[in-house]
């Protein structure tokens, strides 16, 4: 099975800051990439898919770097409500079963 | 409203009892999955099903069983053989293939 690695953090940032997380994956044949957000004691929720060309949704930007085998999530103008754990998910490369990273914890403080 | 429901939200059982967790979806998804999450840990795959009447073991299937008799439903039974059943159980569904998954609200099982 492929491995997906994330820095667990926590990333502790003030409101308004820009913060970026990376997620590395080991299987070069991986085909689909996603970022999920999980609030404390809640289910993960899909934040965004990650396309080869990159994609942006408001304050959130996701990028894929196939050569270096990582995906990134950039959050601009951080809000208190962005505090959560961000999970990286990778699938493909011989398996339809997605592999979840352990998550990166973000704490945005006033 | 389309979505995934899990019930109950909290469940308490005595050691040695089997317990069944419910998962229902009306998203018309072919694939369904069961995960377990322990405090401070990532998601671990218990069982998955890509189509009705078919399912496969995930990474930690021992002590668990499932059925997939209907497209909408994928119940998970935690048997007395599961050594450490206390955990947060999450059900997900998706279109299968390399697509995204959508999660239910989860069931917190406590076994004493």
Notes on the structure:
The complex is a heterodimer of chains A (110) and B (112). By secondary structure, chain A is mostly beta strands. Chain A has no helices and 11 strands. Chain A has strands at residues 4-6, 11-14, 19-25, 30-38, 44-49, 55-57, 60-65, 70-75, 84-92, 99-100, 104-109. In chain A, the strands form 2 sheets. In chain A, strands 2, 4, 5, 9, 10 and 11 form a 6-stranded mixed beta sheet that branches. In chain A, strands 1-3-8-7-6 form a 5-stranded antiparallel beta sheet, with no helix packed on it. Chain B is mainly beta and 112 residues long. Helix content of chain B is 0%, strand content 51%. Chain B contains no helices and 11 strands. Chain B has strands at 4-7, 10-13, 19-25, 31-37, 43-51, 54-57, 64-66, 76-78, 87-94, 101-103, 107-111. Chain B starts with a strand and ends with a strand. The interface between A and B is medium-sized, with 22 and 22 residues.
Describe the structure concisely.
Chain A has 110 residues and is an all-beta fold. Chain A has strands at residues 4-6, 11-14, 19-25, 30-38, 44-49, 55-57, 60-65, 70-75, 84-92, 99-100, 104-109.
Topology:
The complex is a heterodimer of chains A (110) and B (112).
Chain A: E1 4-6, E2 11-14, E3 19-25, E4 30-38, E5 44-49, E6 55-57, E7 60-65, E8 70-75, E9 84-92, E10 99-100, E11 104-109
Chain B: E1 4-7, E2 10-13, E3 19-25, E4 31-37, E5 43-51, E6 54-57, E7 64-66, E8 76-78, E9 87-94, E10 101-103, E11 107-111
Parallel strand pairs in B: 2-11
Antiparallel strand pairs in B: 1-3, 3-8, 4-5, 4-9, 5-6, 7-8, 9-10, 9-11
